[in-house]
Write a structure and sequence with these properties.
This protein is α/β, with parallel strands linked by helices. It has 2 domains: 5-173, 3-Layer(aba) Sandwich (Rossmann fold), CATH 3.40.50; 177-265, Orthogonal Bundle (6-phosphogluconate dehydrogenase C-terminal fold). It has helices at 13-25, 38-47, 57-61, 76-83, 101-110, 153-165, 175-202, 208-213, 217-226, 230-239, 241-263, 267-286, and strands at 5-9, 30-34, 52-53, 66-69, 92-95, 115-116, 119-121, 142-145, 169-172. The strands form 2 sheets. Strands 3-2-1-4-5-6 form a 6-stranded parallel β-sheet, with helices on both faces. The relative contact order is 0.11. Bound molecules: nicotinamide-adenine-dinucleotide and prephenic acid. Nicotinamide-adenine-dinucleotide (NAD) is lined by residues 9-15, 35-37, 40, 70-73, 75, 78-79, 96-98, 121, 124-125, 128-129, 132, 229, 232, 236. This is Prephenate/arogenate dehydrogenase family protein.
Length: 301
């Protein structure tokens, strides 16, 4: 099974990046796309995010072998219902949503006849919309594929080969496990960034001007994350509620221990933790997952 025509629904950061990457790296695969927002469709056509920006969803998906839903996770079920009447038999339907259990359930419920294989490229930026996408986004990044138990192996292999074709590394994972792992590595870090930036802007005796003026290193990094798309992140927290609450419970317990160490002047506890966390940063850099890789100037995007 090979992909000749891919349709992308939702032409923002991720959909646009897939469209550009396919045109760049898989030039024999035809790309169509559609977005619910007419301004996004116009801009997507101007930037050439896909070969053909269609005026209807039916036209975009009708001939596709693979449809990828690139909309906020809260809109996945609606998008799946909208494409359902227009698919050819055997079309593989996938998505890029940041939470997987609830999205998988929504797609399967809306598309009982289609071959549903959920996926999540673990790559992105704080930007969104049709101007944010770029072809190299997925290069050397993981794409986690979370097929249901009865998913046909040929379709899983085809989808995996597609992601590898646009530069990603593929890992197959159970959807529930994905949701816990990503709660730790992505969702809670975003929640922390949103919180600290909100807290800083609410402090009565620190003016907003001072927050902006003195935000060097640490706080500045948090503000990048806290500038991420509000619709996307609202939906992530609402759809990955159980895993996020579980990890958040652990996090607040650990934070309380640090609070107590600071109050008690317990430097050893602080030092031991900071020493341990340093090694995690070093492992990430050794794996090549840091921002400073020469082939990927993501800070420029
Ligand atoms: N931004 C990231 O870093 C990142 C990384 C990996 C995965 N994701 C996931 O990718 C998905 C898209 O995120 P994004 O960052 O590209 O968002 P985005 O806001 O840049 O793009 C989403 C697009 O979907 C369109 N849309 C919304 N509802 C629609 C519908 N029902 N039908 C058709 N179009 C619709 C919007 O008009 C918008 O253009 C989300 O599910 C998100 O969880 C995001
Ligand atoms: O680098 C960033 O700005 C991101 O937020 C990317 C990031 C992440 O947390 O790693 C965000 C959400 C995704 O689902 C995948 C990737």
């Amino acid at each position: 099974m090979s992909i000749e025509r891919v349709a992308i629904v939702g032409l923002g950061l991720i959909g646009g990046s897939i469209g550009l990457a396919v045109q760049d790296m898989l030039p024999d695969v035809a790309t169509t796309g559609w977005d619910a927002d007419a301004d996004v469709r116009r801009r997507a056509a101007e930037r050439g995010l896909v070969g053909t920006v269609c005026e209807t969803i039916a036209e975009a998906v009708g001939e596709a072998d693979l449809v990828i839903l690139c909309v906020p996770v809260g809109a996945m079920g609606y998008a799946a219902e909208a494409i359902a009447p227009h698919l050819r038999p055997g079309t593989v339907v996938s998505d890029v949503g940041s939470s997987k259990r609830s999205v998988g359930e929504a797609l399967t419920a809306a598309l009982p006849e289609a071959v549903v294989i959920p996926a999540h490229p673990v790559a992105g930026t704080e930007k969104s919309g049709p101007d944010a996408g770029f072809a190299e986004l997925f290069r050397h990044r993981w794409c986690i594929v979370t097929p249901g138990a009865d998913a046909p192996q040929a379709a899983v292999d085809t989808l995996s080969a597609f992601w590898e074709g646009i530069g990603a590394k593929v890992e197959i994972m159970d959807a529930d496990h994905h949701d816990v792992v990503l709660a730790v590595t992505s969702h809670i870090p975003h929640l922390i960034a949103y919180t600290i930036v909100g807290t800083a802007s609410d402090l009565e005796d620190v003016t907003r001007g001072e927050v902006i003026k003195y935000s060097a290193g640490g706080f500045r990094d948090f503000t990048r994350i806290a500038a991420s798309n509000p619709t996307m992140w609202r939906d992530v927290f609402l759809t990955n509620r159980d895993a996020v609450l579980e990890v958040l419970g652990r996090f607040t317990e650990d934070l309380s221990l640090l609070q107590r160490a600071i109050r008690n002047g317990d430097g050893d506890t602080l030092y031991d933790l900071f020493e341990r966390t340093r090694t995690i940063r070093r492992s990430i850099i050794e794996e090549g997952q840091d921002d400073a890789r020469p082939d990927f100037g993501r800070k420029d995007h």
